[in-house]
Design a protein that fits this description.
four-stranded parallel beta sheet, 5 helices, about 35% helix
């Protein structure tokens, strides 16, 4: 599990969605917790974790991004060497990540859970049982292609070019996530910072 750097802010916190500061009330997603999930947690989801966390930091969003796998076959292992390579070539270090298994409690710990493919969601349902919360789950590429349910292909058995293609897909989806939430933050910040008109 990677270290998450947190900063303290003055004001009163109301969970991860609402934050009250003196003289200003606004909605923020600054402390969102996001989980990326694939099968083994060594190819796709480590890339998704690293890419989104890097983009969040650069965007000034203090998000906590983690990843997990549904099969648990690689628990404790570092990401696939080719996943590490393509990430490193794009300025993202995922070498310190270690695989872990997805657990039912993840639905209580995370605000949003992105699956890399539809079979991963099926596995999550089997693992979580009554804890499964469909409102928190979506396929990652639905951020790029809403409602089309496109999978991120598993590059595990393929040559290196497949890892580069997967990186490109995940990178574009993560950029869409950052753009979406940054726009929502800006909208609420603007609307709540407008001074009300006073009668003359």
């Amino acid at each position: 599990m990677k270290e998450i750097h947190k900063e303290q802010k003055q004001g009163t916190s109301f969970g991860c969605d609402l934050y009250l500061e003196p003289c200003a009330f606004y909605i923020t997603f600054a402390c969102m917790k996001i989980l990326m999930v694939c099968l083994g947690n060594i190819c796709r989801s480590p890339l998704a974790e690293g890419i989104l966390q890097d983009k969040a930091w650069k965007a000034g969003l203090k998000w906590s991004v983690e990843s997990a796998g549904t099969n648990g076959y690689h628990t404790g292992e570092a990401p696939h060497p080719l996943s590490q390579k393509v990430a490193r070539l794009n300025g993202v270090d995922i070498s310190k990540q270690r695989s872990r298994k997805f657990v039912p409690e993840d639905f209580h710990r995370f605000d949003k859970i992105y699956a890399m493919s539809d079979d991963v969601i099926d596995d999550m349902k089997k693992i979580a049982k009554n804890n499964f919360d469909e409102k928190k789950v979506d396929l990652l590429l639905n951020e790029l292609f809403p409602g089309q349910n496109v999978d991120v292909p598993d590059p595990w058995y393929g040559p290196e070019p497949g890892f580069h293609e997967v990186y490109k897909m995940i990178n574009e989806a993560c950029e869409a996530i950052i753009s979406k939430y940054s726009a929502i933050n800006a909208q609420y910040s603007t609307s709540n910072n407008q001074k009300p008109e006073t009668s003359k």
